Amino acid sequence: MCTSPLKMCFRVGDDRDKLLWQVGLKPHASGNYSMAVVQANSLLEDQGQVFTSPSATYVGIYDGHGGPEASRFVNQHLFTFLQKFRTEQGGLSADAIKKAFDATEEKFLGLVNRSWTFQPHIASVGSCCLLGALSNDVLYVANLGDSRAVLGRRVSESKTISAVVAERLSTDHNVGVEEVRKEVVALHPDDSDVVAYSQGVWRIKGIIQVLNFTNFFLIQSLSKRS
Predict the structure, then answer these.
(1) What pLDDT does residue 218 have?
(2) How far, in Å, are 26, 45, 87, 162, 165 from residue 153 at the CA level?
(3) Phi/psi at 176 (5° precision)
(4) Coil, strand or helix at 30
(5) Are the C-beta atoms of residues 153 and 110 closer than 8 Å to each other?
(6) pLDDT tens-digit readout, 54-102
(7) Which of 2, 28, 136, 168 is the least crowded, having the fewest Cβ atoms under 10 Å away?
(8) How far is CA 202 from the centre of its chain?
(9) pLDDT at 65
(10) Where are the beta strands (DSSP E) in 53-117?
């Protein structure tokens, strides 16, 4: 399992592309997997990891913003909590995954509470969190943010043509989506400006479009009005 910053877990691309990291094809309980990441910013804010065992496979993708601290924290703690709750419940379940998400966020917010007075930047970082977990032939997908899980499904059995279609498995938590926007408004009936149209897009508190993981400043803004 890769729990270090991505640069330490991936093989760097050749001289033609120093912003590409990749992991070649490796086995897991139900087949093979590979991973790759392309760095788009001067500072890599995203993280990804895979855990494999004879009974389960976990894949985590964490799209950080504002800095790498939140995505790295999720990378270091989410799978640990997932294993903890899976063991306590005697197997993987949607409830175990939800508890792992909640425990990871609570732990990070505790870190921010202790650190923000001397490291104020940490109060504004956050991360989307996309988890895929396969256990006992059941695929679980959990998403917080707007990263997407896509399943490639073969639709042709022809020996000469192998057609594959992409099937989306997750939904975006973005207030640009009317259904999500209505849900956020319903959760905060006493806050008339919980969602505002700013600079051509809908934003939570006029700050951010995406409901995501561990944005302390946003959570505090919502808590004050809830």
Answers:
(1) 52
(2) 21, 31, 32, 10, 5
(3) -70, -20
(4) coil
(5) no
(6) 989 999 999 998 889 999 999 999 999 999 999 999 999 999 999 999 9
(7) 136
(8) 21
(9) 87
(10) 56-65
Residue with the two structure tokens 């490291």: 119
How far apart are the C-alpha atoms of 202 and 213, rounded to whole Å?
Answer: 19
Multiple choice CATH, 6-170, 3.30.450.370, 3.30.1360.10, 3.60.40.10, 2.60.200.20: 3.60.40.10
Backbone φ and ψ of 90, nearest 5°: 75, 20
Q: What is the pLDDT of residues 110-128, one digit of tens each?
A: 898 898 889 888 888 889 9
* 136 backbone φψ class: left, alpha, beta (φ>0; ψ -120 to 50): left
Tell me the average pLDDT of the chain: 83
- Structure tokens belonging to residue 220: 């505090």
> Distance between CA 99 and CA 94 in Å, rounded?
9
CA 85, CA 88: separation in Å to the nearest integer? 5
Give CA–CA dist 133/58, Å, rounded. 4
